[in-house]
Here is the input.
Amino acid sequence: MYKILKKEILNKDIDLMVVHAPLVAKNALPGHFIILRVDDMGERIPLTIVEIDGENVSIIYQKLGYSTTLLGKLNVGDEIADFVGPLGKAAHIRDVKSVLGIAGGVGAAPLLPQLREYSRLGVKVDLVIGARNKEYLILVDKYKKYCDNIYIATDDGSMGTKGFVTDVLTELYKEKKYDHTIAIGPLVMMKYVVLLNKKYNLSTDVSLNPIMIDGTGMCGNCRVTIDGKTFFACIDGPDFPGEGVNFDELIARQDYYKEEEHICNLRLVKK
Ligand code: NAD
Ligand code: FES
Here is the structure.
């Protein structure tokens, strides 16, 4: 069992939890994720590792479905049944002099360890962070430690530029150049960031989060198509160069599962 040592409510939908998981903490690198089950009957929830502090692992989750809502009901002192990891491949840290991170919504959580690592290596790091409104901007204070410049976008204009991260990028690229970018957020955001960056010959790493079940390459559920070839996000990723990703296929599959999840949640609420 894995004890919850700290819980922080970041906004009405998103929490941060610090969990005592010494073996995960010992072996984790930026980009790795864990799969947890709240209890023995629980659904598996994959979450990127956000921070390691000694034997403790920070995770951030959005209370979207039944299982993440159940996770959100746990408090400090409670225990999580399973907390397996580190899983996946560590992010490919590139040999560059400047990097731009692009975070959309809760995608700010998996991006943080990668930008922290670039900063630790002496790379110049900037960040564009977007959210639907200022309440949904997360981790900005933590990013301040690692980023030289932070550019904010909110859909409703409640903080920073009114618009999407791509609106900020369009203006930013008029005056600044970067060696490389990492974009993590909704699939549609990553798709349009990659399209925009291609116009500037700028490489984009993305983090893909298709539905995962076993997390070990056995079920095939997390398959993604990159340059016409099939990869499994759980063992080959979740980070990939964005240029060859078939985002439209992934978006269509995600929409299908969202409908199924909605029906399941309705059934569970009725019980
Ligand atoms: P959201 O829908 O509120 O969007 C966040 C931001 O993304 C927006 O404010 C905007 O700046 C940008 N964006 C959205 N649509 C865009 C478009 N069409 N063009 C350009 N930019 C656009 O985000 P959310 O509700 O926090 O959801 C985050 C998503 O990130 C979830 O779908 C989640 O599954 C995904 N996610 C991905 C990973 C990963 O590892 N890849 C990790 C966690 C979450
Ligand atoms: Fe089953 Fe990746 S989650 S193959």
Q: What stands out?
A: The pocket of nicotinamide-adenine-dinucleotide (ligand 1) is lined by residues 48, 104-107, 110, 130-132, 153, 155, 164-166, 184-186, 188-189, 192, 207-209, 238 (CB under 6 Å). Residues 247-270 form the longest helix (24 residues). The first strand starts at residue 2 and ends at 9. Residues 2-87 form a domain with the Elongation Factor Tu (Ef-tu); domain 3 fold (CATH 2.40.30.10).
